[in-house]
């Protein structure tokens, strides 16, 4: 795990005993108002995401109490996004339809004052999505969520990840994340074994979760979409990113306790997103 | 729940005790011959469906004993649909490929006398799929399946749903559904907490199922595809739509009893589609 | 089951008692070094696959210890495949993007000396993928994996499958498979109730697995992608195809023991891909 950074709160899963008193999980308690507000508001989130992750993104948003909407053509996505509460854009597949549809859809969300989240999946080497992601920063996403390699590639450092992998630890992307914040005025969430969430004034490391989250496709994409859902009810991008990060990681911890392998982990993760912090749940 | 409509049989889940004698479920008994025939015939169903729901549609058809086939380009879909027993068209994603491929694929199915089912997902606001869905009515789908908002939008009333959501109760779409029936000569199934199935001469409310079905992506799309499978062996569209609706809803009830959340509900739903009404099953 | 073919080793699941001593499964023992090497190397596999099977392909590769990458446009797929260890090409959907992207992506993999696997899903009737699959043989895939109908259609015999179905037993494709081997210099795996794996010098029938594998979408696609993962660490295509076939089938047997239906079978299959042959696992 990364060494504690001065001025940054580090929370360690090992310091948080699992048990029947999980309602008292301090990380969860700090973001419980956002989780409850998502469940009450049931925000409609338009998602343009990697094809392979569509299932877990949609089912994960539903489990969390939000409502997903997915279409990506230039002809329809900008129109239907006008009735959504937030927009999540993930570059994971970047089909021709998505390539054409994303700029107009982001513009529609911005025009209507909807918060939107950018997940620059697998940028760096890929020749189309890399410049696209950089241009999209001008549309000021409320949160940029990616792994360290992707955040580095976003500001022109490093060579990007290989697929959804990250070759760098979140702390290595600290400077790059601050550069993104300067450009967007929003927040950045850098995912990894320890997650880093920061904006212009705050910075937190979240040392929760489980490596099992890396054994299921699309958990990162889901985190981006969940962040968009949280951004509808949260104070700002930082609070949204922090709430979504804790929500996913605590759900992951619960799922890991129950799972016999990556197949059952995926199922328990969706159950836990529904149950985390709910009455009778954790 | 909607008040009983005169002349319409209302079945209430509360009147159907769950227990070991579920083989005697009267709703299930009324459609058991269709379910058995699907399992025996194993109809091949070509599906053009929302990308996000492809997994549950294909796995759900397989669990039900049918066989799915999925491709949507104009170059191939019309050709391969000629070996299918039925066609299910869902407008949920409407990629450029699907936009181009759907009209020719429907025409091929019609030319070969195959039954086909239209699921006008999310029409209303969306500018391409709304006129497309209305034009497709001329190709006389054996069943149109949608939520109330979508059925209203199909005949030009209302503003359509938001994504897969319905803002209206099925009964509110009764007149619109009858208008669709007049145009297609087939049946309409309006999904909701209570489902409405009708054709020119019959109308039934099905008050079965569970709200858990709305917590998993693609259950509506699967219902449309399952209706197409049933249409291969049923007397007509009405019988196919009623059988598929009862099958899905009873499977949903069984799954809800066993599930700990939406993740495990999805798994149990697929198991229950396989087990419902089978020897040793419900 | 197909009758034993002279000179071909037939292994029968019925002769392999299930129990705590499954570590001694002789089929598994014969390929355990490949399975272990995949887990150690964690090969990055670029996959162009049927849209409906993307989820199980990606989650299955992750469960097996490999790492999936998926994008299919001509603009990006050939570039990102250069950092992959292997390429798996499945023609199941053949979107316009994939149609354009596949030839250049295969060329990039060949140029870089990466092994690649061809899965000619549903060729025969389909007018675009059939000639494409035949042309791709010139790029010498290390393994061609398909059902008997597809392998027959690849060399111009038979009329191909219907969707993912096979109308022919693997043994019926023996001659066609040998013709493919003559053209590619690699191996061919013909999937069915009994699987046939052969190359220029060797031929093996694998009578393992369970019919439950045909009740879940994409298990064949996953087998193709798993073969690509194995080809990174195996001696040659034959060893890769045999290892992947045994791995999938033994995992399927384990999952079938635990499953209550096709929904839970899918989950247990992913768990079993992770657990098979691992310490404390089978």
From TrEMBL, chains A, B, C:
Residues 1-21 are annotated as: Disordered. It is an enzyme of class 2 (transferase). It comes from Citricoccus alkalitolerans. Catalyzes the phosphorylation of the hydroxyl group of 4-methyl-5-beta-hydroxyethylthiazole (THZ). GO terms for molecular function: hydroxyethylthiazole kinase activity. Gene3D superfamilies: 3.40.1190.20. It catalyses: 5-(2-hydroxyethyl)-4-methylthiazole + ATP = 4-methyl-5-(2-phosphooxyethyl)-thiazole + ADP + H(+). This is Hydroxyethylthiazole kinase. Substrate binds at residues 70, 218. ATP binds at residues 145, 191. Pathway: Cofactor biosynthesis; thiamine diphosphate biosynthesis; 4-methyl-5-(2-phosphoethyl)-thiazole from 5-(2-hydroxyethyl)-4-methylthiazole: step 1/1. Pfam families: HK. Signal peptide: none annotated. InterPro entries: Hyethyz_kinase (IPR000417), Ribokinase-like (IPR029056).
């Amino acid at each position: 795990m990364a060494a504690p950074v001065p001025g940054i709160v580090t929370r360690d899963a090992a310091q948080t005993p699992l048990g029947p008193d999980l309602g008292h999980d301090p990380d969860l308690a700090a973001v419980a108002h956002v989780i409850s507000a998502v469940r009450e508001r049931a925000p409609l989130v338009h998602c343009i995401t990697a094809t392979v992750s569509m299932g877990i993104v949609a089912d994960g948003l539903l489990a969390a109490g939000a409502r997903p909407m997915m279409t990506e053509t230039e002809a329809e996505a900008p129109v239907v996004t006008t009735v959504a509460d937030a927009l999540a854009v993930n570059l994971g597949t970047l089909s021709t339809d998505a390539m054409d549809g994303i700029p107009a859809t982001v513009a529609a969300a911005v025009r209507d004052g909807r918060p939107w989240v950018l997940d620059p999946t697998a940028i760096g080497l890929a020749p189309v999505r890399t410049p696209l992601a950089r241009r999209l920063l001008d549309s000021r996403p409320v949160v940029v969520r990616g792994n360290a390699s992707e955040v580095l590639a976003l500001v022109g450092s490093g060579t990007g990840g290989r697929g959804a992998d990250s070759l760098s630890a979140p702390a290595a992307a600290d400077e790059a994340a601050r550069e993104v914040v300067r450009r967007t005025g929003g927040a950045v969430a850098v995912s990894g074994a320890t997650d880093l969430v920061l904006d212009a004034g705050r910075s937190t490391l979240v040392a929760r979760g489980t490596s099992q989250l890396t054994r299921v496709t699309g958990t990162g994409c889901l985190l981006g979409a969940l962040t968009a859902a949280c951004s509808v009810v949260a104070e700002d991008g930082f609070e949204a990113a922090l709430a979504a990060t804790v929500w996913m990681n605590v759900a992951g911890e619960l799922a890991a306790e129950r799972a016999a392998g990556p197949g059952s982990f995926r199922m328990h993760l969706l159950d836990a997103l529904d149950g985390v912090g709910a009455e009778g749940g954790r």
